[in-house]
């Protein structure tokens, strides 16, 4: 992996930034090509300085790529030190939730190439999915670099416009919490059906994880996998009759859930409480 001749600057190396850095290095990125700015570097990060990684010193020349992986509330204090890299060849890649491309353009300059991304928490273990969208200053080659960088922590999708970030946030960004809530509900239902809490939790968690892997590895449509496991008049069919009820089933519930999350994303982007 080669982000460019002038190296890569990573601003923020917490859970997500750290996962990306580990993924990049595993993919062949030389630590000597990386500079990291982080006020509280972990021991493993400091150890990489022995391999050439530069820590908490701004590059003397504009890097090829600057990845902004700080929390949104910290980002505004971090960006001023990077303004000298704006309006130039440095590609900025942001994983800061809720921060618009226009905000970065105001802080860095309108001629700055910027890619905004929306990863999700499974990216921390290399199993995430990230939506990416770019401003008009990003070249095809730079977009390919941004995609490669985010591919280090999972799958990627390229969005048509920035407004779609709200839907990505509501679906895959917030989605892990929906799956965790579903797993909680299944565990509680198993307990009500007569299982111990330990057995019910193990069954629910392993079933959810295994079902996800089955969808990924077979490539089958979820609807087809559902049909394959549903025997006519069997136990699964009886359960699905309740789950997929027209008026108050899971499709209506998930529709309301994603819509509510998307509306909240739009409101936050507008600065509304």
Would you mind describing this structure in some detail?
The two termini are 41 Å apart. The protein is built from 11 helices and 8 strands. It is α/β, with parallel strands linked by helices and 273 residues long. It has an 8-stranded mixed β-sheet with strand order 3-2-1-4-5-6-7-8, sandwiched between helices. The protein folds into 2 domains: 8-160, Rossmann fold (3-Layer(aba) Sandwich), CATH 3.40.50; 173-269, ProC C-terminal domain-like (ProC C-terminal domain-like fold, Orthogonal Bundle), CATH 1.10.3730.
Poorly predicted regions are: none
Instruction: Output the CATH class name of the largest domain.
Output: Alpha Beta
Q: Count of helical segments?
A: 11
Instruction: Give me the Rg, rounded.
Output: 22 Å
CATH architecture of the largest domain: 3-Layer(aba) Sandwich
Write the CATH homologous superfamily of the largest domain.
Answer: NAD(P)-binding Rossmann-like Domain
